[in-house]
């Protein structure tokens, strides 16, 4: 059993994945930790606050973001993963779409690869994950970050996202990744309009029933600008509402910037409506 399923089974509630961005340009400034020392401080604090997983990323994938050269991503991510692994006893995920970065990060102490391209941007990704015996998160994304919000369209967003995720899970398994090591992510905000995001969030229970753990990541995203007219530093209440409903509807992981607040919300939801 991989670290996600194992921790989920032990916790008896959705896991809280804390975001550690070793980038200078992530959309939420408070999540940025551009140097390894900054990343260690943020990771240690999140671990102390109760984070179940730490997700380290060296390339912003926000709408409109330009790709980061592989060398730059390696220089950001690998030292941070090594340093974090030395001081916290929490599984580390590396948020990357590049096999070379995943390989080096897994060697440095990561146990999970969180791939926003679901293995499509680098054909070697699944082989690297299989060789390491690591977990992988497969996310749905329509388009690429630089253009994905230009004109996203679907005939049936629920069905299309579910079919995509199952196809990528089968491709991962064909490459040698164990079924228990796969988690799915509908990719809220990645090539979706507000209506698409809301429809997918309403479908959390059905997506959680596809046979794999489900990750839901909406923390402080721009959907709350569209829905509530809130700036990024005003989006915590909306983020907590989604985390609470995701917990009720069967999500295995919520990926967040605000660990203690989300843990309180998830624990309260579980106490009031235990599954």
3D structure, described in words:
This protein is an alpha/beta fold and 275 residues long. The protein has one domain: TIM Barrel. 45% of the residues lie in helices and 13% in strands. It is built from eleven helices and eight strands. It has an eight-stranded parallel sheet. Helix 2 crosses helix 3.
Describe the structure in brief.
With 275 residues, the protein is an alpha/beta fold.
- Level of helix content? 40-55%
Residue share in β-strands? 5-15%
Query: Would you identify the CATH H-level superfamily?
Result: Dihydropteroate synthase-like
Report strand order across the widest sheet.
Answer: 6-5-4-3-2-1-8-7
Instruction: Assign the CATH architecture.
Output: Alpha-Beta Barrel
CATH fold naming: TIM Barrel
Outline the low-pLDDT stretches. none
- State Rg: 17 Å
Terminal CA distance reads 22 Å
What is the average per-residue confidence, as pLDDT, rounded to a whole number? Answer: 90
Task: Count the domains.
Answer: 1
Task: Report the sheet with the most strands, covering strand number, pairing sense and barrel closure.
Answer: 8 strands, parallel
Order of helices and strands: HEHEHEHEHEHEHHEHHEH
Give the class from helix and strand content and strand pairing: alpha/beta
The level-1 CATH class = Alpha Beta
| Shape descriptor | globular
Q: What count of helical segments does DSSP give?
A: 11
- Beta strand count: 8
């Amino acid at each position: 059993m991989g670290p996600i399923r194992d921790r989920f089974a032990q916790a008896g509630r959705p896991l809280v994945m804390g975001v550690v961005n070793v980038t200078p340009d992530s959309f939420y400034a408070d999540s940025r930790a551009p140097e390894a020392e900054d990343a260690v401080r943020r990771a240690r604090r999140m671990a102390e606050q109760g984070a179940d997983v730490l997700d380290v990323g060296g390339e912003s994938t926000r709408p409109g973001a330009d790709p980061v050269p592989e060398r730059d991503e390696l220089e950001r991510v690998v030292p941070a993963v090594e340093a974090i692994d030395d001081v916290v006893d929490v599984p580390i995920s590396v948020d990357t779409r590049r096999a070379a970065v995943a390989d080096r990060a897994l060697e440095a102490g990561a146990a999970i690869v969180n791939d926003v391209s679901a293995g499509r941007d680098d054909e070697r990704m699944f082989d690297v994950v299989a060789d390491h015996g690591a977990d992988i998160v497969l996310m749905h994304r329509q388009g690429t970050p630089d253009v994905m919000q230009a004109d996203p369209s679907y005939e049936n967003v629920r069905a299309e996202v579910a079919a995509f995720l199952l196809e990528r899970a089968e491709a991962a398994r064909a490459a040698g990744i164990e079924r228990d090591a796969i988690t799915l992510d509908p990719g809220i905000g990645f090539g979706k309009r507000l209506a698409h995001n809301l429809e997918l969030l309403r479908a959390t229970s059905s997506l959680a029933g596809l046979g794999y753990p489900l990750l839901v990541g909406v923390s402080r995203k721009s959907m709350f600008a569209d829905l509530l007219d809130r700036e990024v530093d005003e989006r915590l209440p909306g983020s907590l509402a989604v985390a609470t409903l995701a917990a009720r509807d069967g999500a295995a992981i919520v990926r967040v910037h605000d660990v203690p607040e989300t843990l309180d919300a998830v624990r309260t939801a579980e106490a009031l409506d235990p599954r």
